[in-house]
TrEMBL record:
HAMAP family recorded: KduI
SUPFAM superfamilies attached to this UniProt entry: RmlC-like cupins
Transmembrane segments: none
Name this protein carries in UniProt: 4-deoxy-L-threo-5-hexosulose-uronate ketol-isomerase
Taxonomic source organism: Cellulomonas denverensis
Task of the protein: Catalyzes the isomerization of 5-dehydro-4-deoxy-D-glucuronate to 3-deoxy-D-glycero-2,5-hexodiulosonate.
Names of required cofactors: Zn(2+)
Binding site for Zn(2+): 190, 192, 197, 239
Record GO biological process: D-galacturonate catabolic process; D-glucuronate catabolic process; pectin catabolic process
Organism phylogeny: Bacteria, Bacillati, Actinomycetota, Actinomycetes, Micrococcales
Gene name per UniProt: kduI
Keywords linked to the UniProt accession: Isomerase, Metal-binding, Zinc
Length: 272
């Protein structure tokens, strides 16, 4: 399991492009026939991907977790961004079409992924209580229409795991789809000083890219991101971006609280 250690904003001015990418970008999430995992010490989140190819893949506990099984002390949010597939949790199978979200609670001992062409994005955080495993199909979450076509940020936000939906210990998770002709996400920007947020960008054409903004409002940097790559955004960092084409992204958070509106605004005029 790859390790990403926590950083603070004072380190940012000294980072070149290579170090920014090494610290905050996950360039290869989905490897056919494998489960990939990255442990970030920001809120002890584990990110990863499961891409079944020739048969099922079982989620084992890496040595770094010091646990008998992966979800002994954790919970897990899964979004399928590939072809339809199946996730089996302790013998119960769940069919996940493209865009479906499955929450798996602490204490689930066996998680198995299957389905050639499926791409299961994994977001896991420590949990101190257990909630039931729940499947949410596309269109079943809480839908919010945000932004405006005039500012190129009209988008549909689908809340799946949240306080008024599928319950969890600390994960908040959903999918945002930009409307055709819109390229900006999360603008005006903001930070979450009480939790870490991660993005997985997908549905981006192969020859398109996203310019992802990060850093403090007064000290911004950018990363060039391709389809199905993920970004780790520490609590002190903004997380916003603009694409050369419309796209979608999975957003997921964990930390101090689950209040979706708990954010610290950073209007465009404050960005440097």
């Amino acid at each position: 399991m790859d390790q990403r250690y926590a950083t603070n904003p004072e380190q940012l001015p000294g980072m070149d492009t290579a170090e920014l990418r090494e610290r905050y970008l996950l360039p290869e999430i989905f490897v056919p026939g494998r489960i990939t995992l990255t442990y970030t010490h920001h809120d002890r989140i584990v990110l990863g991907g499961a891409a079944p190819a020739d048969g099922p893949l079982t989620l084992d506990a890496p040595d770094e977790l010091r646990a008998e099984y992966f979800l002994a002390n954790r919970e897990l949010g899964i979004v399928n961004v590939g072809a339809a597939g199946t996730v089996t949790v302790d013998g119960t199978g769940y069919q996940l079409p493209t865009g479906a979200c499955l929450y798996v609670g602490r204490g689930s001992e066996q998680v198995v992924f299957d389905g050639a062409g499926a791409q299961f994005y994994l977001f896991s955080a420590p949990a101190h209580t257990s909630f039931p495993t729940v499947l949410t199909l596309p269109g079943q979450g809480n839908r919010l229409e945000l932004g405006d076509q005039l500012t190129s940020n009209a988008r549909t936000l689908n809340q799946y795991i949240h306080l008024n939906g599928v319950r969890s210990c600390q994960i908040v998770m959903g999918v945002t789809e930009l409307h055709p002709g819109s390229m900006w996400n999360t603008m005006p920007a903001h930070t979450h000083d009480r939790r870490t947020e991660c993005y997985l960008y997908f549905d981006l054409p192969e020859d398109a890219r996203i310019i992802h903004l990060l850093g403090t409002p007064a000290e911004t940097r950018h990363l060039v991101v391709a389809d199905r790559q993920a970004i780790i955004s520490p609590s002190w960092s903004i997380h916003s971006g603009v694409g050369t084409s419309a796209y979608s992204f999975v957003w997921a958070m964990a930390g101090e609280n689950q209040e979706f509106t708990d954010m610290d605004p950073a209007p465009p005029t404050a960005l440097r």
